[in-house]
TrEMBL record:
Organism from which the protein derives: Arachidicoccus rhizosphaerae
TM ranges: 20-36
UniProt-recorded name of the protein: DNA repair protein RecO
Cellular component terms per the entry's GO annotation: bacterial nucleoid
GO biological process: DNA recombination; double-strand break repair
Length: 245
């Protein structure tokens, strides 16, 4: 039996002489791995097909689902969205690469649902459609949204009585905790502002220096490592920090 669903390509692995194993996050079934045959050959029948399976590609699939098998098969695929600049713009590509790696590092097979897929899809399309000034805060906003969708988030807000953000507890508190995992000062205040952003169109409204962006990215990596077992720091985070200099 086949099902139609949207999917975002996360990563690919070469298989045999002409095939790929493609990991995707789907709207209906969460994380899935698909065998895609014959897309790496030089013949006319395969021409251009491999471009469908670049990381961050958003596709419409008609795919088979066998719950007893780890590897599924695709009957048909086509673009759900065609990027205009994401793959060619250095900043956009760095931001998208960070998003994709965060998804790979955090999402497990059993985690699905349209709200998570919609957040991924809308964020990638927003990056593609907007200028640099509009997307500088997107890695921070997405990190907060992803944490919330995965079941952990920050609570409270920055104010005189609670000026410290405890990363381990995910809570604004009155004084710095002894464990050492916390934010204070300007970074804590900016994070409180970012927490209020619900619409990506308002992401640019929070004024942040690149120094503070890089600092918050570092703390968010720490936040994920404190709340997800076996979480490894995203390698693309370092690339993004460089781009934001």
């Amino acid at each position: 039996m086949t099902h139609k669903t949207k999917a975002v390509v996360l990563r690919t692995v070469k298989y045999g002489e002409s095939s790929l194993i493609v990991t995707m996050f789907t709207a209906l079934f969460g994380l899935q791995s698909y065998m895609v045959k014959g897309v790496r050959t030089a013949g006319k029948s395969a021409g251009g097909k491999i471009s469908f399976f670049q990381p961050a590609a958003i596709l419409e699939l008609e795919a088979y689902l066998n719950p007893l098998k780890h590897l599924q098969f695709i009957k048909e695929y086509q673009w759900a969205y065609i990027y205009k600049s994401l793959y060619y713009d250095v900043l956009k590509n760095a931001v998208a690469t960070y998003l994709i790696e965060m998804i790979v590092q955090t999402i497990k097979e059993e985690e699905s649902g349209t709200s998570l897929f919609d957040t991924i899809e809308q964020t990638l399309e927003y990056i593609d459609q907007h200028e640099a000034a509009d997307i500088l805060n997107i890695p921070l906003i997405f990190s907060l949204q992803l944490a919330s969708l995965l079941g952990f988030r920050f609570h409270g807000r920055y104010q005189a009585s609670t000026p410290v953000l405890d990363l381990q507890e995910g809570l604004y508190v009155a004084r710095a905790p002894q464990h050492g995992f916390y934010l204070e000062g300007e970074a804590a205040a900016i994070n409180s502002q970012l927490m209020q952003i619900k619409d990506l169109a308002h992401a640019k409204d929070v004024q942040i220096s690149n120094i503070n962006r890089r600092s918050l990215l570092k703390y968010y990596q720490q936040f994920f490592s404190l709340h997800l077992e076996n979480y490894r720091e995203a390698r693309s985070y370092q690339i993004l920090r460089t781009v934001l200099q």
